[in-house]
Amino acid sequence: MPKYQSLSPPKCAELIQYAHSIVALTGAGISTSAGIPDFRGPRGLYVTRRYDPDKVFEIGAFNRAPQHFYEFSNDFVAEVKNVQPTLTHKVLAELERQGPLAGVITQNIDQLHQLAGNQKVVELHGSYTAALCQSCGRRFKDLSYGWWEQIMNDSVKPPVAHCSKCTGVIKPDIVFFGEQVNGYKEAERMVSECDLLLVLGSSLQVTPASTLPYSTQATTLVINQGPVALPPASHRYFVDGDLDGYFRQVASCLGRGA
Asked: Which CATH number is 131's domain given?
């Protein structure tokens, strides 16, 4: 039976130096040090029951009572609009600029990878950058958090966002429970072709993202605070710790001083 193996920052830096195609799979834990709360961590939104996931993120519940999602969105947009990428986000962006990072697959909806400078990002769960009116089908694109803040505040029934054309409910291009994720086939291809997979800040409890590490036999490093739903294997390494602290040491070993 394989045992759990750890990996030191210098060894991680060595793997990065010799890798030709790195893929990062990221979850909420990469953004917590930026001030965005996670969902399933020890102090996550689901654990504290600040928001009920069955009311906020389930598509049937959204169609019946969108105010629950928009109460969350009102808080989320207020928190994230001034947030800056973490050190780990910046390290990933630098790795893409330098060449070895083939892309990022993220479960997050906060756009911090793009803000850090990553260009190749597969957003499995979508984001607030686009939206669709559920009544007239009007598309909204290239949206900012400021736009969302204004449309929620100016709504006929705040904070639910309504279309100015037909007053229908606007749904952001976020993937709810009960909907298919975005870009899974592309994500699966990326993982299957990489020679180093970094799983960062994800407990791997949500499908289908949780199945992606099974698509490769390449060296896989999982860094997360708390348990991870992935069994040990000879090619897998696990670190239960702080992402920014770990990657500060990795960057130092690489001579990049992030």
From this structure: 3.30.1600.10
